[in-house]
Amino acid sequence: MGHHSFSGGVHPPDSKAQTASKAIENCPLPEELVLPLMMHIGAPASAVVAVGDRVLHGDLIAAPRGFVSAGIHASTSGEVIALEPRPHVSGSRLLSIVIRPDGEDRWAQGPGEADPNELSTDQLRDRIRDAGIVGLGGATFPTQVKLSPPEGKKIDTLLINGVECEPFLTADHRLMLEQGERILDGMEILRCLLAVDQVILGIEENKPDAIVAMRQICKGTSIEVCPLPVRYPQGAEKQLIFAACGREVPSGGLPMDVGVVVQNVATAASISDAVRYGRALTERICTVSGPAVAQPKNLRIRIGTPLTHLVEVCGGLKEEAAKILLGGPMMGMAQMNLAASATKGTSGLLVFGSSSLPKMLQGPCIRCGRCVSACPVRISPTTIAAYARLDMIDEAQQCHAMDCIECGCCTYTCPAALPLVQSVRHAKGAIVARRRKV
Ligand code: SF4
Ligand code: SF4
To answer: Closest ligand to 374 CA?
Structure first.
């Protein structure tokens, strides 16, 4: 099983040494928690609390709107002090619920504990939905949607993603080392829910301790821990499915088209909390790192924690921030400042000073073809980027721009420092906008 090699990819320095051996620390509660109503793929949630309301940890404060959406829960007990637009990780100001913690961190009663073996498939799925769980690897797709394959789609494999191929990030690594039982419990719950026989946990070979730990924990189960060669983007869904199962998801297709459901290790752990203990998703592990951070750490943070607080807890900045990223350096979202708050998708906060930024001058394309060989979905980034710059959207579409997974390999590899992924993303945006019009 496994060890197929996807095409393309790059080998960026993994830069994980600063935090890989640091145990997860509890991040102290900030003065206020800012929970935006939009922190998942799909329709934003709608607030069900008002200013002045008292809430308990785990209370539903915003309800999902529709099937592809996710509820939001108070990440501690306290008072709702504002319902107003606040700086959001997307760069705009979006409606957010602001909670002032009372310091007691009292949990709401919630749905209570349950034995997963005694719950029906629908009950399992409902508990996952009611806990507001989304993909914690960064994609933030509502989890219950992925667990509801349409009639006729046969799922035979559950693939758990413990790859964490983005440089700097070590949150999933630490979770596997320290809380492997939660992950195992979540995997077993998912196995029952999907009624699959085959469960594979994929981990990159640069985390040998996590491979050993998870093998130990999974002993006696039929879960296969599958070490994977280190290559970015090994953790991207389609690349992972090919590497671990040898199945190729067709262009425009979904993992379920080849019988696979992929879930991240942190998502699996949160599924255990939700199903077994009735606890909503109100926290996650986040790596705070980068050359400008005084004391890089892996933190257990409440959803809604201001980014400034995360930096303070890590001893502040050693030099002025020249570049701030949420997530890893390859796919992370650039931030102008630290004004936003951590969402369910915040796997990492990286801060770089100007001394550590590579000084690359943008030049014309020298037709070296490196971006083409690096592209894991086998499209031509340079061609699509050229069309995008000329607004030749039809041509970009014919070059399969929509297949781009925005992994950033092309930009990383380009000696002319061209912002290729931005251009391809621009083309994708234009194609989608045009489809909406017709
Ligand atoms: S074109 Fe898209 S998929 Fe291909 S390397 Fe660039 S970002 Fe990755
Ligand atoms: S890697 Fe850069 S320079 Fe080389 S072909 Fe692609 S766009 Fe041109």
So the answer is: 1
Ligand 2, residue 366: give the atom nearest the CA.
3
Task: Tell me the CA–centroid distance for residue 420 and ligand 2, in Å.
Answer: 9
Query: Is it the case that residue 422 has pLDDT exceeding 80?
Result: yes
- The residue whose CA has the least distance to atom 1 of ligand 1 is 381
Q: Looking at the domain that runs over 118-277, which CATH code has it been given?
A: 3.40.50.11540
Ligand 1 and 268: CB distance under 6 A: no
- In single-letter form, the type of residue at position 357 comes to L
Distance 382 CA to ligand 2 centre (A): 6
377 lines ligand 1 (CB under 6 A): yes
> Tens digit of pLDDT for each residue in 118-170?
999 999 999 999 999 999 987 899 999 999 988 888 999 999 999 999 999 99
d(CA 234, CA 262): 13
Q: For 61-114, how does the pLDDT look when each residue is reduced to its tens digit (9 = 90+)?
A: 999 998 899 999 999 999 999 999 999 999 999 999 999 999 999 999 989 999
Query: Which residue, 289, 313, 316, is CA-closest to 302?
Result: 313
Ligand closest to Cα of 417 equals 2
What is the Cα–Cα distance from 205 to 231, expressed in whole angstroms?
10
Mutate to test the pocket of ligand 1, among 331, 424, 425 (most ligand atoms within 8 A of CB): 424
Between vectors from CA 285 to CA 284 and to CA 291, what angle results, nearest 5°?
A: 140
- What average pLDDT does range 323-336 have in this prediction? 93
Read off the pLDDT of each residue in 181-210 and give the average, rounded to a whole number.
96
Mean of the per-residue pLDDT values of the chain: 94
Q: Is the pLDDT of residue 266 over 70?
A: yes
Ligand 1 neighbourhood includes 211 CB (under 6 angstroms): no
Q: Whose CA is nearest to atom 2 of ligand 2?
A: 414
Contact 225, 210 (CB under 8 A): no
User: What pLDDT is attached to residue 349?
Assistant: 98
- How many Å apart are CA 373 and CA 292, to the nearest integer? 33
Residues within a 6 A CB radius of ligand 2: 365-371, 382, 413-416, 418, 420
Residue 3: pLDDT above 60?
A: yes
Residues 206/16, Cβ–Cβ less than 8 Å: yes
> Tell me, what amino acid is at 428?
K
| Position in ligand 1 atom list of the atom nearest CA 8 | 5
CATH 3.40.50.11540 domain residues, the chain = 118-277
Closest CA to 345 of 327, 331, 325: 327
